[in-house]
Write a structure and sequence with these properties.
Length: 443
């Protein structure tokens, strides 16, 4: 049998009995759920504020329209046409290209190892929010509490965080329940976990809009203009990293999800635009929700010091008499990464009526946003194992492969449960996300 005949036979075997989405909207919701994740809530708003506000949107949209969306369209086309995950789809085009697909699948799977740790932290905060207001630990000192949860105190002794580990187990159990029947369960899950966080974000935006200082946060987030930052090469690398990470391209997710589409009835062009524009729109909304609250915290800080923040002379005098306090007030708008979601925003929630309710709402939103992205990355590995020759020959049940992938993911997450976990996370994320994804995309 020739190589082409063998490949055709494998392709026919792969397509035989391949499960399909119950409705095209299930595919769109699943793809949007994968694209929209924790990065939309803190990474995108932070980058916009860091790089001069609105000017960041110029490189972001240029890269989105001329790099991100075309790559997304190619991945959707490849998955739909070859009816296979990334590795086997690229391998069907040319066996020499299989390595590109393998790299994206394994890189995406490796991301879930530390991504689920962040979800475990959110799970801790979510669980603590069910206590009475006087007993909620993250209300007392958000910075110290996050250091306690993440064990990022600066002293590395080899201590193990059992509370985070228990929550990590819970996260992986949820991922298993979302995947053990393939796209059948995924299609039902995303019908709740995608629209509900969007509704929660809108509620948080409306509530925060009535707080004093919310407009200051919006000004710092999006309205301010500093055109000089466009000459900074880091604004372009930041935009590239955000587009790749947020859309989930070069991770095998979109190829995997689209492989369950109909080969003849799928509108790839419409799907590509719906996914990418929904992802960007929700990222912008997440920024409003975050920075309205941060602006309110900055205003409270100035009000507590008896300083009119709109009076330039008063602010200069405040800076001269108490520079540390003024620096503290301005620091609310300079939070980054985990500080936005686990330190600054919870502090703002503590100033609202019924903070436990808003804590449940906010951290529940984080969990739903993140869990879609986590199980989509895990789904890529499951699909790869089902599509490879071992899976085609022995045809193991989906739930068996899912158990293997979730247990491996749980064990791989153990290093992040130690007191060196946050440092390890930063190192791994830098090499996989900032460099690995760009390298795979270039290939």
């Amino acid at each position: 049998m020739s190589g082409n005949d063998l490949e055709a036979e494998i392709q026919e075997e792969r397509e035989k009995g391949r499960k399909k989405w119950d409705h095209p909207i299930s595919f769109i919701l699943a793809a949007v759920g994968s694209a929209v994740g924790l990065g939309n809530v803190w990474r995108f708003p932070y980058l916009v504020s860091k790089f001069g506000g609105a000017p960041f949107l110029i490189p972001y949209f240029l890269i989105l329209f001329f790099v991100g969306m075309p790559i997304l369209g190619v991945e959707l086309c490849i998955g739909t046409f070859f009816q296979a995950g990334d590795a086997d789809a690229f391998g069907s085009m040319n066996p020499r290209l299989r390595g590109i697909g393998l790299a994206s699948v394994f890189a995406g799977y490796a991301i879930t190892f530390y991504y689920c740790i962040i979800l475990a932290w959110a799970f801790v905060y979510f669980g603590e929010s069910f206590q009475a207001t006087s007993n909620i630990p993250w209300l007392e000192n958000t910075g110290e509490y996050f250091s306690e949860v993440s064990m990022s105190t600066g002293n590395i002794t080899g201590a193990f965080n059992w509370r985070t580990f228990v929550c990590l187990i819970a996260v992986w159990v949820i991922i298993f329940l979302c995947l053990f029947k393939g796209v059948k369960t995924t299609g039902w899950v995303v019908k709740f976990t995608v629209p509900l966080p969007l509704l929660i974000l809108l509620i948080l935006i409306i509530r925060a809009a009535f707080l004093d200082g919310s407009k200051d946060g919006i000004m710092a987030y999006l309205i301010k203009w500093d055109s000089e930052v466009l000459s900074d090469p880091f604004i372009w690398s930041g935009a590239i990293g955000q587009v790749f990470f947020s859309l989930g391209i070069c991770m095998g997710v979109m190829t995997t999800y689209s492989s369950h589409n109909s080969k003849t009835k799928t509108n790839v062009a419409a799907s590509e635009k719906a996914i990418s524009l929904s992802d960007t729109g929700i990222a912008l909304l997440g920024g409003f929700a975050i920075y309205e609250m941060l602006g309110s915290m900055r205003a409270k800080c100035y009000n507590a010091a008896g300083v009119d923040r709109y009076n330039e002379t008063a602010v200069l005098e405040f800076n001269a008499t108490d520079p540390d306090k003024r620096k503290q007030c301005e620091s609310y708008l300079d939070q980054k990464s985990f500080g936005l979601a686990f330190i600054a925003y919870p502090e703002g929630l503590g100033t609202l009526e019924a903070p436990q309710f808003w804590g449940i709402v906010f951290f529940g939103c984080l969990l739903m946003l993140g869990i879609d992205s986590a199980f989509s990355l895990c789904e890529c590995m499951i699909t790869f194992l089902k599509d490879c020759w071992i899976g085609l020959r022995y045809r193991p049940k989906t739930w068996i492969i899912t158990i293997i992938c979730t247990v491996v993911g749980l064990l791989a997450g153990l290093p992040y449960c130690f007191d060196s976990g946050l440092m390890t996370l930063d190192i791994v994320d830098n090499y996989i996300n900032n460099w690995g994804m760009i390298l795979i995309g270039t290939l």
